[in-house]
Every structure is written in structure tokens, then in C-alpha cells.
Write a structure and sequence with these properties.
The chain is of the alpha+beta class. Helices cover about 35% and strands about 15% of the residues.
Amino acid sequence: MDVNDSGCTNKFAFSPNRDAGIYLPPNADTSERGLFELFFSDDMVAEIFRCSDEYTQDMKDKKPYAYKHYKSMTKEDFYKLVGIIIHFGYRKIPQYRFAWRQKCLCHDPFVASVMSRNRFDSLLAFLHVVDKATEADLKKKKDNCCFTLWLIVAMPDAEISIDERMVQSKARFSFKQYIKNKPTKWGFKLWCLCDACTGYTNNFIVYRGKEGESMSTHGLSYDVVMKLASPYTPYMNQGYRLYMDNFYTSPQLLKDLYANEVHGTWTMASNRRGYLEQIKRTVSDYNQKPRGSGVYMRKDEIVFNVWKDTKCVVVASTEHPGHSENTVEQNWKEKGEHYNKYMGGVDRSDQLLKYYEVVRQTKKYWKTIFFHLVDLATVNAFILHKIVAPQSKMSHYQFRENLVRALCCAPEVIVPRSGSGGRPAKDTTVKHYLIQGTKRVNCVYCKTVHQKRQLCSRTCAACKVPLCFTRNRDCFIKFHHRNFQYQREAILQNSTDSESSEEQSVTSPPTPEPMRTTPILRPPGSFKAKGRGKRRKMKW
């Protein structure tokens, strides 16, 4: 161990086999749907069609109601299904079936126009991603996970980061994880490799527990990093700089990555395998020193920095030299700034995923991962859109809305803009104005909202309902406001029904009342005294 050594590690030049950026096929569509379809290839979608049809024939007896409305899935049906799933991510409702209920406040006319509820239920019930033979083979191997997604559309810059990600689920499956200090405590755990600057997810692995993983002698964290950045993926021997937290750190991992021309920078915990005894003694000594004290030491190609902040922090790196013309404090600030800047690649991706995440309760646990892959493809497509069109000011919500409209083949709807101050919406076909009536009737708005009878003599010419329009009450504006839309439609429907019933009563001759043969006997106390006095009982 060299302390206060003037040497430094050799820094590899960043020379990737493929330059950082997006690699699109020739004449590729750079619209929202075109970027999204880069992650769902035609072969993958065709395989989903075949597996779904095969699963339908096997399960038609167990799901007769869903099979009744099922038809063979097409490409447009699949993308409409995915579009509605993405739509439910930013339009939260208690149950997705409420979107098709016309008398419910959660009714969504857009979803109802794209696909019927029975069709959506049948497609979602018979959705399958593996065939029967593959599923049986996976069960023999006790491997219930088979998910692939083509993600290498964009190559990252020199800085990449690795961290875990939790997908929320409380279903019953063997590799469900619980992490106490995470915002999402229960669910699937994914190991992710992301671009440290943009948050683009380049690779991921679903963690299947100790039974489903074959662990080497170096430990789980070592195997995860070497799988994500293995020689089969384009990250080795090209000068990439990798940032991780203290869960993955070990001196052996730093040495092996350095041998493959990959720099590493991360914090270290004292309970990790290979933690040097001299560093432990140094940390115990620096716990008593004032804030801002620090020292570095180097062993072979690894530089260890011990810095006293609120507590002692140890950073191991093969990228930054231990000694330079700057002071120890300046060196630590440089390393700390680099680590804080480039460590949050997975966190940026998680932040974009959590904004409009598709989380639905399903009977099949793998559908939760399928929904997550749809979210992941949407976020990656949004990041690609920001790279392709840097001058665009489209927000994440607008991108998802345009993507849903493109997947569902729905035209753009232009809603007429209403005036300020709660005035009625401008309608080019029907004009709403008040006309003076001949008799006074009850105001519809007062009767519906305030539950009281208020006489008025004015009526809306278009709606043909009586409304108040005085100095103290302006029910005409309140009735035509957009917040009163559902109640207004119900009132107008009831008025049309009453008018039709009145027309039927006018056309049909009135039935004569039968003559009474017995006298009408009234109970005592039912008579009202003459005049305006109080009601009193009359003696018989």
C-alpha cells in the first residue's frame, strides 16, 4: 500500500466501437409511434400473436365469457391494447372498467371509441408471450421468467451507471423481493445499466432470487456487474467509465474491470470482501479529525480516498489519480462532483417511469413485468425524441398523449376554447340565449343543485329549460359551464323523455274515469278551516 504516492493510474481513452448516439434504420420514422416501435420489432409482435392464439385454444373452456368476445389478434389490435394501457397510466381511475360506464364520472369517451370493453377484456385475458413448449421447459428448469426487449437502439456516452430498480407487485411468486429502505418495498428487482447523462436504459436483468441464480465465488454483486457489462455487450475494452454505489464494490471487481479497460468509481462499505485493514484504521483515525480532512492511498491501479464530512466516506476509483497539483480537498471535490453527477442514471429513468406508471392488478405476475416493459419502451422513446429533436419543447405528458393517439389510430380532437370567467363554451352550431316566457316555472339549476324551487320566466332557446337570470342569481352561466356538463346532459335527456311521453299522452284519447258507487269517507282531522288560520280539527 502506497500512502501519499505521486503516481497515478493509466487512464484509458474513450474509443467505442460504435459512436455514442442513436442508430436508426434507413428511412426510419422519427414520430412518437415510430420511435416506440423500435423496441417492439415485427418478429416480436408476430410471436405474441402466435402465442396468444395458441393459449386461447387451450383456455377457451376455462374462460368461456372472455372467449365469446375473442377474435384473432392483429397488429392494430395489439397496438390499440398497448395504447389504452399507456392511457390508463396518466389517467388514473379506480377500476379500468369505469372508463366504459356512461353514467359514471370516470367515463372516458376516447377509450370507448377505440375499443369495446368486452374486446379489451378478452385481449388482456388471452395475452401470452411464450408458447406452450417453452413454458413447460421453463417450469422444468424452475425458471418462470422469459422477457426480452430490444434496447440497444442508442449507444451511451462514456459515463454509465448500474443500480437496482423495484417494480411494484405483491403477487405470489418465488422471487418477490422486500427492501425496507426503498420507496417501493415489495415487488420485482431489476438490475439496470443506464446512460448516466440521459437515463436511457441500455440493459437490465430480472433478479430471480438465490434459487434461480447461479452464483460464482466472487458473490452476487460481482456477477451482476459482469453480466450487464460482459464482453458480449459493447462496453468492454472501449474506455467506458462505470459508476455504482457501495452494494457492488469490491477490489477484485475494480481490478477485473480495469483489465478490460473499464474505469470504475464508487463508494465502499467496510463490510465488503477485500476491504483493506489499513483503510479501516485510517477511517477510525479520521473520525476524530475535523470536517474537511482527507487522505488518499493507492494500491496497484486502485486509488482509495478517505474524506471526513459528517462521517468518513471511502471512495475507490481507477479513473481519478490520487495525486495531482491540486490539494487533497480539491481532488476530493472533483471526485465527489463526478460521482454525484454520473451516479444517478438509473434514478433519472426511475423518475420518468414513476410520473405515469402503469400499475394494474393482474392474476398473472408476468403481466406486471410486461406492463413495466411497455413503460420502459415509452420512456426510452421519449429520451430518443429529445435527442432527435432537441429544439422540441414537448413535455413527457404530451409525448405520451400523442403516442396513445398514434397507437390507437385516433384523430386529433380540437376542443373549442371557452371564455374566461366561467362563461359558456363557444358553440358554432347552436346558439344559447334567453327568451322571455309567458308564465313562471321552476328553475332547473336551482332545483338540481340547491334542492329548492325558484320561479323564473326565462328559458334557454337551445336547451329549452327554464333558468334564472337576475341580479342575485345567474343560473344561465352556471348551467352552461363545462364543470356542469354531466348533470346538464342528464337534465336534457330527462326533458326529452318527458316531452316524448307528453306527446304520446296527447295523441292517445284520455280514458274516462269510472263512476264511484260508494261515498268517499275522509278521516277526522283531514278538513282545513276556511280562511288563513292554522289547521284545526273539525267535529263531525
